[in-house]
Write a structure and sequence with these properties.
Distance between the termini: 112 Å
Number of strands: 0
Helix content: over 70%
Length: 279
């Protein structure tokens, strides 16, 4: 989880401060050691002076040089020995602290080496990832260029298709107009054809009606003639028959001559032909 921004800023500032302050730590350490040595030398000189004054106080005529074979202990030598012992002790402490520092530095060096190795591994992984990312970026750029070319080609194709669609729409409009005109013409022709067929049907009905009327009249005339011939005498039957047939034919012909169709043309009975059901 990433740290907040203010904590990261504070950590960076503390790191900068520690680096800035630790840059003078070797100089400070040298001055500290120098002050310790100066203090040590001052104390040793003070001890030497005290030992010399002690020797001079007890025997003013004696010198401060130690003579071998005498049983007395030279205080200067004792002070010098004690100072050397204290110096040896301090040097041992310094050596111990140096060893301790060396151990700490060795551990830090190992830790830093391990950290450096991890950083190098991370750097290697990062470089590999960066290389792969660059390769992918190059491939994506090529794909983008190819897509751009494809889009340009598709735009040209779409423009051509739009032009063709506009042309086809114009042609379709013209075809629809022509179809509408043809539909209107077909409707008119159909209506005329229906009217003509209706007129023909009406004429056929009139002809059938006329045929039925003529047939009925002919049947009536035939019945009347038969009745007249049956009631007359044999002598008068021939005259009456001839007269009746003449009168009957005259009536029939008269009726036929007076009959006309609605369109003004004479029927087939006026021409001496027998009417048929088809007129």
């Amino acid at each position: 989880m990433a740290e907040p921004a203010w904590q990261e800023i504070l950590r960076l500032r503390l790191t900068e401060r520690n680096a800035r302050e630790s840059s003078f730590s070797p100089i400070i350490e040298q001055y500290r050691r120098l002050s310790q040595q100066t203090k040590f030398f001052k104390e040793r000189n003070t001890q030497f002076l005290r030992a010399a004054q002690t020797v001079r106080g007890t025997n003013p005529s004696s010198s401060t040089v130690f003579v071998a074979g005498t049983g007395e202990e030279n205080p200067v030598l004792s002070a010098y020995t004690s100072s050397l012992e204290s110096q040896i002790s301090s040097l041992r402490d310094e050596i111990a602290s140096a060893y301790k520092s060396q151990t700490q530095n060795t551990q830090r060096l190992l830790a830093m080496t391990e950290t450096l190795r991890e950083k190098e591994e991370l750097s290697r992984v990062g470089e590999e990832s960066l290389r792969k990312a660059k390769d992918e970026l190059a491939g994506l750029r090529r794909k983008v260029e190819q897509h751009g070319e494809l889009m340009a080609e598709k735009d040209r194709t779409v423009q051509i298709l739009h032009d063709e669609i506009s042309t086809l729409q114009l042609e379709l409009g013209q075809i629809e107009d022509r179809n509408q005109t043809l539909l209107k013409d077909n409707a008119k022709l159909l209506q005329r054809w229906l009217d003509a067929k209706q007129a023909e049907a009406n004429k056929m009905n009139e002809a059938n009606e006329f045929y039925e009327n003529m047939r009925t009249r002919h049947q009536n005339v035939s019945n009347w003639r038969d009745e007249t011939l049956g009631a007359a005498t044999p002598s008068n039957g021939a005259d009456s028959s001839s007269q009746t047939s003449e009168s009957g034919n005259g009536d029939l012909n008269g009726d036929a001559k007076q009959t006309e169709t609605k369109d003004g043309t004479l029927s087939q009975t006026e021409k001496g032909m027998d009417p048929t059901p088809n007129g």
